[in-house]
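Annotators were shown the component list below and the corresponding predicted structure, then asked to write short factual statements about the assembly.
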Amino acid sequence: MTSNDSIDTADLLAQYQRLLERVETNEKEFRRLARSVSRVEEDERRRLARDLHDGLGQTLTALKHRLVQLGDGLPGESRERLDAAIALCGEALEDTRTLSRLLRPPILDDLGLEAALRALARSLGESSGMTIDVDIGELPPLDGDVQTLLFRVAQEALNNAAKHAHASEVLVRLVSRGGFLQLQVADDGVGCDPDRMVASGGSGLGGMRERLRLYGGQMEMHSSAGEGTRLRALVPTGA
Ligand SMILES: Nc1ncnc2c1ncn2[C@@H]1O[C@H](COP(=O)(O)OP(=O)(O)OP(=O)(O)O)[C@@H](O)[C@H]1O
Ligand SMILES: [Mg+2]
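Structure shown to annotators:
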């Protein structure tokens, strides 16, 4: 080997090192930008949720009160028609509240992740008929973005259990272990081939996996036909 060869090799190694550093810097920058985008998205959802609740929600409440007042002293058939209108108004009000909560539950901002997960389990349990247990261990203080991230993952997994699994029982478990936050959502439903889950083109699981990666996290799915589904998401505690 000549000295030129060794210089070339050292030179190549140095170039390779510099390239690697550039790739790492660019990836960090990309993650930072993508995290800002999802923060902006959550801010927009929060604003829309508040507008829906305080704007349309208040108007519908006022309209319902007026309709109820109109009913005083109305005779038979007219009264029935008015009652039908009041019922419709009530449904529109309920839909508005549900949509507002789905967009961004205020409890997540007011009381944090644990309370939000319990409220989500309660309301989805009532609407779907599934029994949803929530088990939350001792957690370190969590950054707002990480709370939102874990809430969205649990929300997607629970919606999937209600929509696809025909599950009767679901367990949501959140613990902090070995430097990671571990979120598990396990259902006793019909299960599915995990490769098909990812390949099916649904934006839910794919979107969650991408969102977790932005925080240095990852997601695994374990499932097979008839054996239920278990989703496990890991996020580094310091993310
Ligand atoms: N808990 C589950 N039990 C059984 N099958 C599931 C479960 N979760 C997901 N799947 C399967 O994996 C597929 C992909 O799920 P994903 O959440 O990505 O999409 P989706 O729910 O179909 O649509 P979207 O979430 O965009 O509304 C589903 O269509 C379903 O076939
Ligand atoms: Mg889904």
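Statements collected:
1. The beta strands are 131-136, 169-177, 180-187, 218-223, 229-236.
2. The chain has seven helices and five strands.
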